[in-house]
Amino acid sequence: MEITPNRQQLAAAGYQHIRMYDLKSLSEDPVINFEGISKNVTALGFQEDGKWMFTGGEDSTAKIWDLRSYNLHVSRIFQVNSPVTCACLHPNQAELFVGDQSGVIHIWDIKTEHYEQLMINYLDSSSGSMMVTTSADHTARIWKTADFSQMTELNESNQRWVWDVAFSADSQHIITGSSDNVARLWSVESGEVKREYSGHQKAISAIAFKDVLYPS
């Protein structure tokens, strides 16, 4: 689940479908409903200008989708060896990080087609200087992208499997979703929980952070 860069639409993906909803409309019907997918879609996001969308799925691929028309179509496909669990676009808009079930992170340079892989669910901060991983070990961890050293471990005694994560626009806070049915807002600097959001009856498996960083 992800909000488009212009904050006008919400994209939600699941088993064999991608749907986009108008956030300003009272209608529950999607404005785009694409169902031509063979397996579960596990990750999605957008290029900063909203020209294209990327997805990852259990078909062991990452895909680039052209959004310049309402007829969604795949323009690029990146094949890996295991089902994709997460995907994130670097702030430089050129490198797509793809994580799979075997524990490998693939770095795909979309412009040059250069490819490499790392052995480390992760997300880049807006500056590109940090990334955060989520895990079945009940933690999320913040890493420096310069040398991939660990900065902070986000751990709370009642937390269970951490499924998804999102940075705030200023990269000062992180929100996580967990199998204990709670979303938590964390301070990146201190690693402390600033707020908990409860009320869900089952695990929180997707997070979208709608905030805007205004120039000072």
Automatic annotation (TrEMBL):
Complexes and interactors: Part of TORC1 complex. Part of the TORC2 complex.
One GO CC term on file: TORC2 complex
The name this protein goes by in its record: Target of rapamycin complex subunit lst8
UniProt record, GO biological process: regulation of actin cytoskeleton organization; TOR signaling
WD repeats: 34-75, 155-196
Keyword Cytoplasm included in the entry's annotation: yes
Primary gene name: mlst8_0
Job description of the protein: Subunit of TORC1 and TORC2, which regulate cell growth and survival in response to nutrient and hormonal signals.
Pfam families in alphabetical order: WD40
Localisation per UniProt entry: Cytoplasm
Organism: Portunus trituberculatus (Swimming crab)
PROSITE patterns listed in its UniProt record: WD_REPEATS_1, WD_REPEATS_2, WD_REPEATS_REGION
SMART domains: WD40 (SM00320)
Keywords: Cytoplasm, Repeat, WD repeat
InterPro entries on file: MLST8, WD40/YVTN_repeat-like_dom_sf, WD40_PAC1, WD40_repeat_CS, WD40_repeat_dom_sf, WD40_rpt
Gene3D superfamilies, alphabetized: YVTN repeat-like/Quinoprotein amine dehydrogenase (2.130.10.10)
Family: Belongs to the WD repeat LST8 family.
